[in-house]
Structures are given as C-alpha cells and as structure tokens.
Amino acid sequence: MNVLIIGAAGMIGRKLTEAILRDGGLAGRKVAALHLADVVAPTAPDAPGIAVTAEAADLAAPGTAARLVAGKPDVIFHLAAIVSGQAEVDLDLGLAINLDGTRALLDAIRAHGPGYCPRVVFTSSIAVFGAPFPEVIPDDFAPSPRTSYGAQKLIGEILVSDFSRRGLLDGVSLRLPTICIRPGAPNAAASGFFSGILREPLQGLPAVLPVERDVRHWFASPRSAVGFLLHAAAMDTGPLGHRRALNLPGVAATVGDQIAALERVAGRRAVELIRPEHDPMVAEIVAGWPRAFAPERALALGFTAERDFDAIITAHVEDELGGRIPVLEGAGGT
Ligand SMILES: NC(=O)c1ccc[n+]([C@@H]2O[C@H](COP(=O)([O-])OP(=O)(O)OC[C@H]3O[C@@H](n4cnc5c(N)ncnc54)[C@H](O)[C@@H]3O)[C@@H](O)[C@H]2O)c1
C-alpha cells in the first residue's frame, strides 16, 4: 500500500514515520511507498523494501493538495497544522493552514471521483472543547471551542465526517490529548511547561513552573500518539457510524501528580530544579482547558494509552534518553 504523511517533519510526524518504517506494514498490509510532505523539508530515511520520498510542500498553497494525492495513497495522515498559540495570534494564518489546507486536501481526494476512498486520519485536539465543562468530559459532550485553533480543528472534524458520510473518503478524527513529554527544545506554546518541568529536570537542567500545582490536565505520551494514529489507520470504521471524531484515552494528572511522578522516577534533585514563577497569562489560558475525559468509545474500539504519569515519564526515558536518567548521574550542575 501507499501511505502519505502531511506534516511529516513535526514531532508526531517524525515518530510516526519511524514507526511505519520499523513495522514495514500498516493495517496488516505491507507498505510499498511512503511519501513525506511538510512545509519544512522532511528527511527521507533509508528503509529496505520501502520507497521513501520526501518533499517540502505547503498544503495551503494552490495545487499542493492535488499533487500530494495524485498517486492515490491508500492511507493519508493529515498532521499539518499551525499550533494553538500561533493560531490565536494570527487568525489569517490559522484559517489558511488549519481550515483551508484541510479543505484543500479533502477536495483533492474528492476530485478523483468514485472508486477512490482512502483512509484519512486527521489529528484534531481536545481544544475543540471549551469551558464550562464537567470535571470529566463524557463522549457525548458537545464541542464548543474557545480558541480559533479549536474552532478550526472542529470544522475539519465536521468536514471529515461529512465527506465520510458521502463515501468520498473513510475518515477518523483523533482528538489528541496534550502530548507529553514533548522532546526537543522548549517552545513558546502555553502548554509547553507541562513537558518542560519534566524534560529539563530529567537532564539536570532548571525549569520554570508558571501555574499552581493543582492545575489538572489530560495527557498521553508521544509513543501513545503514534499508537493512536496507527490504530486509526487500521481499525474497522463501521462502528464509528457518522460520528468520526473520537476523544482518546489518556492520563488525568495535576501538576502536583506530574512532579510526584518525576520524583519517583528521577529523585529529589530533579524536583528541586523546578522553580515556581507564576505567569497570570499562562494560568488563565490553562484554566480554560479540559481536565479529564471518559473516552468510552475509543476504549471500546481498542485505543490505548498510559495508565499513570510514571509510565509517561518512563516512555520518555526509554524513547528519548536511551533508558538513562542524566540527573541521577549528576548531569546539569546548578
Ligand atoms: N502535540 C500535541 O500536544 C497535540 C495535541 C493535540 C493535537 N495535536 C495535533 O497533532 C498534529 C501534530 O502535532 P505535532 O505536535 O507533531 O505538531 P508540530 O508543530 O510538531 O508538527 C506540525 C507540522 O505541520 C507542518 N506544517 C505547518 N503548516 C504546514 C503547511 N501549510 N503545509 C505542510 N505542513 C505544514 C509544520 O511544519 C510541522 O512540521 C497537529 O495537527 C496538531 O494540531 C498535537
């Protein structure tokens, strides 16, 4: 089968690429060709037996979507997005990429006409939910976003459902939890500290905590995110009916729970590297985010995630740090 990943140079896209190449197959079939596209040129790793190609491509630019689906890929992962903070600051950019880019992709698939009905896995977000909401959000709770990013993702979900209902494609929208621990350098996202207060101390480096310890949120690891995507590509979509968007399993944890897990995995010194420095703006943004879900549909459909925060930290240590915990070895030096 032929597979296309759009947004392949991003954090999840790179890990998904690695997983597909490692497995060599998807949905029980051998992958013959994997095409990687991103506005930032992705690298095409060598993989015996799989034709891996990569290109720098702006999904929102005229003609790009049609070119990307010209070869009729069997599975399309649509991960390309402008993330929440940027989409809030720049409405035009968010609309152009998160909404118009998604529409362009779906239209390009439709243009092939009957006989072409690829599996499309679209990464939505728990940002489709806006306060007020219950402490634990059930599957039938109505989305009502309070950010432009959430609104753009929700419109994408609705289009994926409608195009699936019409038989133009076979789509699944995944409302990803906040993916933690995000590897790499700290970024400016309002959610960045959820990863930073763990990732930096594990390395023996200081980190700033801008909110109170009782802030509760919904998390899954990058490893689970890849698992969700692979499962969505392979699953029987019949049981979804016309409701193609799924709340996904995760771990509901307070910042205090995160820090307690860090201490269990990496010791007291790691925790001492976290410096509280209240940021009212970040605290206000985070206060409007979902805290926990009861994702019964996704669980029944076989989606799985970590069960506690220790497992999320352990996944990071195994996947990003080669099983080592630098702070326990005296790294850093504050
Ligand atoms: N990481 C999370 O916590 C999280 C949570 C919920 C949803 N999501 C969604 O999951 C997806 C992947 O997340 P991520 O963490 O890997 O994000 P990321 O920012 O690391 O990756 C997104 C990629 O999309 C690319 N992109 C942006 N505009 C593009 C365009 N016009 N054409 C082609 N590519 C473009 C970017 O260059 C980037 O490589 C995104 O859709 C994101 O909205 C992520």
Largest sheet: 7 strands, parallel
Which cofactor or ligand species appear? Answer: nicotinamide-adenine-dinucleotide
Query: What is the helix tally?
Result: 12
- H/E series: EHEEEEHEHHEEHEEHEEHEEHHEHEHH
The whole-angstrom Rg is 20 Å
> What is the subunit arrangement here?
single chain
> In one word, what is the shape?
globular
First-to-last CA distance: 52 Å
Low-confidence spans? none
Sheet-strand content, in percent, reads 15-25%
| Helical residues, percent | 25-40%
Strand order of the biggest β-sheet? 5-4-1-6-7-9-13
Q: Could you give the count of β-strands? A: 16
Q: What is the average of the pLDDT values?
A: 95
Class by alpha and beta content: alpha/beta
At a glance:
38% of the residues lie in helices and 19% in strands. It is an alpha/beta fold.
Please, could you describe this protein's structure?
The protein has 334 residues and is of the alpha/beta class. It is 38% helix and 19% strand. It contains twelve helices and 16 strands. It has helices at 11-23, 64-68, 84-89, 91-110, 148-165, 192-202, 222-234, 255-266, 268-272, 280-287, 296-300, 309-320, and strands at residues 2-6, 25-26, 29-30, 33-38, 51-56, 75-78, 119-125, 137-138, 170-176, 178-179, 207-209, 216-220, 245-247, 251-254, 274-276, 293-294. A seven-stranded parallel beta sheet has the order 5-4-1-6-7-9-13, with helices on both faces. The longest helix is centred in the first third of the chain and has 20 residues, at 91-110. It is globular and about 60 Å long. The model has no long low-confidence stretch (mean pLDDT 95). The chain binds nicotinamide-adenine-dinucleotide (NAD). Residues 6-7, 9-13, 38-40, 57-60, 79-83, 97, 101, 123, 125, 176, 178-179 line the site of nicotinamide-adenine-dinucleotide (NAD).
